[in-house]
Design a protein that fits this description.
The chain has 340 residues and is of the alpha/beta class. Helices cover 32% and strands 16% of the residues.
Length: 340
Amino acid sequence: MRANCEWSHFNETKIVFGNASFSKMDKHNFVTIADLTREKILYMIEMIGEFEKHPNRELLKGRVVATLFFEPSTRTRLSFETAANRLGARVIGFADPKVTSGTKGETLKDTIMMVANYADVIVMRHYIEGAAQYASEVSPVPIVNAGDGAHQHPSQCMLDLYSIYKTQGTLDGLNIYMVGDLKYGRTVHSLLMAMRHFNPTFHFVAPKELAMPKEYKLYCDQHGIRYQEHTAFNEKIIQDADILYMTRVQKERFSDLMEYERVKNVYILNNETLRLTKPNMKILHPLPRVNEIAYEVDESPHAYYIQQAGNGLFARQAIFCDVLGISIDDVKNDKTILAP
């Protein structure tokens, strides 16, 4: 588990651009959630809230954002691109690596260095764990990790944290149940590490083939995070949940399709399963879903996964501004707010 992320800094002269100032060489990467402090997380949540109030601004007017998706994505890619557009930036990039020079043998390093010539920030999703960290070490412009293999998904984590805070009114002392693919689920790995500052109790609900990896349980032990493991999934197991975080069993992570077939429908959430849950409980899911949440649950007051996805726009706007040196004071004092 690689956990040496980087909001790294290289200070040089500042330039004024529009209504905000940017440091030409003040490079902040957003590669992992692991090293963010409690204060930084709460700071980002406050900034995300500002963008939910007013998403249409010109804080990044004249900037160029590159989106490099070496792995398929719908919500993540579109929300990053929408975030850039709503902030006045222009977007370049690709959603299919087959159309890039990688098919000709170009290395990731050369791709990153080349794209850095054209963009002010690079958003990258890659199927190899650690690819975003590597890109951040060779890139002269900020790298934002949009998911690297089964490792981490820090921007999803920020919108998850915001969704939890918004629905519960706090991040402290919550019972968080993670259900399904905990072995390959990079969203649950990121959330586990981010919540270490907030005294959670985790319940890991998974079949043995998809159990939370040992290195993450060791992480819990090292940081005093309480957790329990379950293989059963029913109304009694989840009755004390504040957050029920459902995940998809990810077919693309399996080398053995027979193993995938054995576990793909092992846990299905329906209204009957929800009958004992607390009134405040909310259901989150990083999406896409397959069969793990029945469509009848969509009408439940506990369902929050569609709104959760919507929060991704505001979270990614905040991430763009933060990596480019725009502070929350800049956002609050912004005069470029546009009519919806």
